[in-house]
Design brief:
This is thioredoxin-dependent peroxiredoxin. The chain is an alpha/beta fold and 154 residues long. It contains five helices and seven strands; from the N terminus they run βββααβαβαββα. The chain is globular, with a radius of gyration of 14 Å.
């Protein structure tokens, strides 16, 4: 069952690029979370998407949101990817795609892991979902609109 707008985002704990464990609940009551699932480190589309999030990272931070990327790559791959492109946010390793399946961010065209972004508010409620395999920039711009809008109304 896919997560929908208005649902409480399922909690999870995964390993970050630095080897630490990160749980979604770590941010509850503190920050909104932009949780983006992407297919693979260091591929053209995923690099474009991740670098677009990097380039707007400070704006997300000002809006009270943390960015978290999730793929099935291991933490060592995430570390290389984050270092190569100066990614200032957390990348989590979802081996076996268990969290991806939990959220319903499953395979595009039945071949590739999906590219889906969830904007989760401070209370842990999903406010917005953007699902597009090829509109890399759209994930960033749509998530940013929601985060800035929520900051303005808080």
């Amino acid at each position: 069952m896919a997560v929908k707008v208005g649902d409480t985002a399922p909690d999870f704990t995964l390993t970050a690029q630095n080897g630490s464990s990160v749980s979604l609940s770590d941010f509850r009551g503190k920050k909104a979370v932009v949780l983006y699932f992407y297919p693979k480190d260091d591929t053209p589309g995923c690099t474009a998407e991740s670098c677009a999030f990097r380039d707007r990272y400070e704006v997300f931070q000002t809006a009270g949101a943390e960015i978290i990327g999730v793929s099935g790559d291991n933490s060592e791959s995430h570390q290389r990817f984050a270092t190569k492109y100066n990614l200032p946010f957390t990348l989590l390793s979802d081996k076996g795609d268990q969290v991806r399946k939990l959220y319903g961010a499953t395979a595009a065209f039945g071949l590739f892991p999906g590219r889906v972004t969830y904007v989760i508010d401070q209370q842990g409620v999903v406010q917005y979902i953007f699902d597009s395999m090829f509109n890399f920039q759209g994930h960033v711009e749509e998530a940013l609109k929601v985060c800035v809008s929520n900051t303005a109304t808080s």
